[in-house]
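Input C-alpha cells:
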C-alpha cells in the first residue's frame, strides 16, 4: 500500500505525533478539524484515497500508558 510521507504528516496543522501501526497510520493531534482537513488535502495531492478514517478521544488509561509506558493490567 502507498503511504503518505511521515515528514509531510508531521507538518500538517494540529499534528503532534505520527506512528505507523501495521497498515495504519496513527496521528496524535491537538486540533482535529485542522488535521483532518490537512490530511484530506495531502492525500489528494499524492493521489491516495483514505480507506478508513477514525477518531478517538484519549481515555484516562491512554494518558497513563503514554506517561508511564505501562498498561494498567501489566504487573
Amino acid at each position: 500500500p502507498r503511504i503518505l510521507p511521515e515528514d509531510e504528516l508531521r507538518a500538517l496543522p494540529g499534528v503532534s505525533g505520527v506512528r505507523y501501526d501495521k497498515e495504519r497510520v496513527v496521528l496524535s493531534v491537538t486540533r482535529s478539524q485542522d488535521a483532518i482537513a490537512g490530511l484530506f488535502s495531502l492525500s489528494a495531492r499524492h493521489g491516495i484515497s483514505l480507506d478508513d478514517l477514525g477518531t478517538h478521544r484519549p481515555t484516562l488509561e491512554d494518558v497513563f500508558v503514554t506517561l508511564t509506558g505501562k498498561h494498567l493490567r501489566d504487573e
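The mean pLDDT is 87. The longest strand covers residues 15-21.
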